[in-house]
Specification:
Arc Repressor Mutant, subunit A; 3 domains; PyrdxlP-dep_Trfase_major; eight-stranded mixed β-sheet; PLP-dependent aminotransferase family protein; globular; alpha/beta
């Protein structure tokens, strides 16, 4: 069914001395966007900055921004500012934020922390996808092989093995973090605004292990962990496997986790011990948490003695002149446990990550050694050398625009094929899109129908302990946009149109 969602198209804008000043300025910034000097997701200069930079009045600065927004080159985010968007992308209607005043409730009438059984439910969905004959997989969030310089990676790996031929035959007697890896990650942390000593760095097998170790260090079975809602289903599984309870906190598309709802949670949940967030390109919403909100969240958790676990898996994929600073950069009390995954940006097959446990670091190290002993040295040394090489920065400069192109082409296809009432906010980076289906369309039902057509998606029910996201789904933009992907989206749109109540 053809969608009734409208597409914005760029209109010609005067760029002559006779044109009003605000139109001249708008044309100037439109040209900067077209030439990629201002890239998708970057923050535009504020009203005050435009006034100062161009010596114009408040009215002229406001008119400049409004014209660019009307033409589809900018999007306004309440209380945050204006951000660059591509006028060639569909102006799909955005979903609205939920009520941000209090935690979500589970089906039994109690706080969301009372729900159990997410492991079994998600395992059944995952297993259904594995058993099906999949021809187009839109359910994952791992970049495709074609996005990585595998020749460079293979050459450098071979060189390391020649340099240290016995590296795979030698184990380590400590928790397994190599000094070269510690030094490299501490240096990267400094560039991101964090001050860490090399010994504060502990290698992990990706972020799943890191976040699980963090929660095991700060909470006991029966304790409560606050999470963003919706959130990554692997986190929900991990919390349940530790015998902990999940409390879902509503999440704004523009600022991230609700501090108002979190404040209520602190006052009503005496066993609340930790908060877990993905501040940059939150999964699955794609939210970019503003600096002011990050600082306020750190201060809040320190005041209430809560561990703040930061999952930094996607920050380097943000479309910006410089990557945003992680939450840990505002931490002065040690209440932030920082976990970084290199899976999405460096090498998915390496499964390399690292963490620093703040005031709980020694306990995290003890748990790591008790549960999994060493993290392989080869992976650590490869990660240390790859991230320090100029080739890694060049890789990121290529990766971000390629992912942007894939996101935009998918958004355009969704606008063409999905039924009227479909909503979508294009995130400023990342590997996936979070989509709200029209009223009456169930993503769980769509998941089953799509599997029979050889298409795998991630239904919204996977991202919550509640049933509130059955009308949403996550689609991966991590693979190249091919005719097969376009056809799969057409099929999904037809199934969604047929499934309306």
């Amino acid at each position: 069914m053809a969608t009734r969602i409208q597409m914005r198209s760029p209109l010609p804008m005067p760029h002559t001395p006779e044109a009003p000043i605000y139109q001249q300025l708008a044309a100037h910034y439109r040209e900067a966007i077209e030439k990629n000097a201002l890239r998708l997701g970057m923050r535009m200069p504020s009203v005050r900055e435009l006034m100062r930079r161009h010596a114009v009045s408040l009215s002229t600065a406001l008119q400049t921004l409004r014209v660019l927004e009307e033409r589809g080159w900018l999007e306004a985010r309440p209380r945050v500012g204006y951000f660059v968007r591509n006028a060639g992308t569909p102006a799909l209607e955005e979903m609205s934020d939920p009520d941000l005043r209090e935690p979500f409730q589970a089906g039994d009438g109690h706080a969301g922390a009372r729900f159990t059984g997410i492991n079994e439910r998600i395992s059944l969905l995952v297993e259904s996808g594995r058993r099906a004959d999949i021809r187009v997989d839109l359910g994952g969030a791992t970049p495709g092989e074609e996005l990585f310089d595998t020749r460079w990676m293979n050459r450098s790996a071979a060189a390391l093995l020649r340099e240290q031929p016995g590296i795979l035959a030698v184990g380590r007697s400590t928790a397994g973090t190599h000094p070269e890896f510690q030094a490299a990650m501490a240096h990267r942390a400094l560039k991101a605004g964090m001050r860490l000593a090399p010994q504060d760095v502990m290698a992990t097998s990706g972020n799943t292990e890191a976040v699980h170790l963090a929660l095991a260090a700060v909470a006991q079975p029966g304790d409560v962990v606050a999470v963003e809602s919706p959130t990554y289903y692997g986190l929900l599984q991990g919390i349940e496997s530790l015998g902990l309870k999940t409390l879902e906190i509503p999440c704004s598309q523009h600022t991230g986790i609700s501090l108002e709802a979190l404040d209520l949670a602190v006052r009503t949940e005496p066993r609340l011990r930790a908060v877990v967030v993905v501040p940059d390109l939150q999964m699955p919403l794609g939210t970019l948490m503003p600096d002011g909100h990050k600082a306020a969240l750190v201060k809040f958790c320190a005041q209430h003695g809560l561990a703040l676990v930061e999952d930094d898996s996607y920050r380097l994929l943000v479309e910006a002149a410089e990557p945003p600073r992680p939450i840990k950069a505002w931490d002065v009390s040690g209440h932030v446990i920082y976990c970084e995954s290199l899976n999405k940006t460096l090498a998915p097959g390496l499964r390399q990550g690292w963490m620093t446990g703040g005031r709980w670091h020694e306990r995290v190290q003890m748990l790591k050694f008790a549960q999994s002993r060493n993290t392989n040295t080869l992976g650590q040394l490869l990660a240390a050398r790859w991230t320090a090489a100029p080739a890694f920065e060049r890789h990121l400069l290529r990766l971000r625009p390629r992912l942007r192109s894939q996101r935009e082409r998918m958004a355009q296809a969704i606008a063409r094929y999905f039924p009227a009432g479909t909503r979508l906010r294009l995130p400023p980076g990342g590997l996936s899109l979070w989509i709200q289906l029209p009223d009456g369309v169930s993503s769980s039902s769509l998941f089953e129908q799509a599997l029979r057509q050889g298409i795998r998606i991630a239904p919204g029910a996977m991202f919550s302990n509640t049933a509130r996201y059955d009308g949403f789904l996550r689609l991966s933009c991590a693979l190249a946009f091919t005719d097969g992907v376009d056809g799969a989206l057409r099929t999904l749109g037809q199934l969604a149109g047929a499934g309306r109540a």
